[in-house]
Amino acid sequence: MTPAGEVDLVGKPLLYGCVRAALRTHHEGLLVIELSAVTFMDAQGLSALVLSRRHAVRHQRALALAGVPDAVRRLLQITALSSSFTLMAWP
Length: 91
Known about the structure:
By secondary structure, the protein is an alpha/beta fold. It has one domain: Transcription Regulator spoIIAA, CATH 3.30.750. The protein contains three helices and five strands. The strands form two sheets. A three-stranded parallel beta sheet has the order 2-4-5, with helices on one face. It has a two-stranded parallel ribbon with strand order 1-3. It comes from Acrocarpospora corrugata.
């Protein structure tokens, strides 16, 4: 899945809802959230990622982040969340 634009208070339920739907419909394999089109992410966006990861773990699924923009990567590092996610390189 590839969210785009701002992931904030408005985007949080959209992202989390998409992850939940993907986990319901695709029962196997790695779920990758490709973030290269994200232009802004705040604490609400980070919360959506954390909730998504927890939901994936509850359903015994792996979740990875790919194409993470530098600003989002810094947020993950500042909040000590970078070690909670598998970060993948993206072309």
